[in-house]
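Q: How would the structure tokens look for this protein?
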Amino acid sequence: MAYNLSRGHGIAVVPILIFYPDLSITKVMKLAFPLIFLIVSICCYAEETGYASWYGNKFHGRLTASGETYDMNKLTAAHKSLPFGTYVRVMNLMNGKSIVVKINDRGPFVKGRIIDLSRAAAEEIDMLGAGVVKVAVKKVAEKERTERYEIQVGSFSKEENARTVKTLLEEKGLAAGIVHAAGSYYRVLVGNIDEHSIKQTIGVLDELGFTDVLVRKKKLY
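A: Here is the predicted structure in token form.
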């Protein structure tokens, strides 16, 4: 990356040079990079910045303010003022990961927070553990949405067998889950896969011996 102090990088570099004048420029830039990333993201990307939280099981299946049923496995979010049906890209400013979500609820009603993400959306930008992270939010056109897929790896009559497979998949870095409806089988799914990763994921499953899988396009919003 080429650093140009006249394009805003100096905002991050100058304070470090003042306090640590003996550091080499390479070390200075390494220290400054996180701050540079934050400045560029806010200035060139965001229409709104603040803190995001997420909501899950407690609200799953309840009606949202838009009248839709909240599904924590879909890519949706709550916002205080944006019209329902608006699509926004939310970027986690701690790691640069982003996801497009549809606004279908109102909230969050906590000072300093600007958006409340579904569990699936929070997982996409790696904020489940943190709970609350600094984000940049920008409205996008519907065409910018990315198709997502889920793969059914297997269906089992016994839960313990499904859990064994789920653990094996997670050890290989795959986000696996178990879906079970009353009176039905335990289905093991690998979900929220984008179109660019679908072939790679199927390849990993094939190496593990799961050659007869079922791929479905997910309804995300």
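The chain has a mean pLDDT of 81.

The helical segments are 9-19, 25-44, 119-124, 159-171, 198-207.

Upvote if useful.
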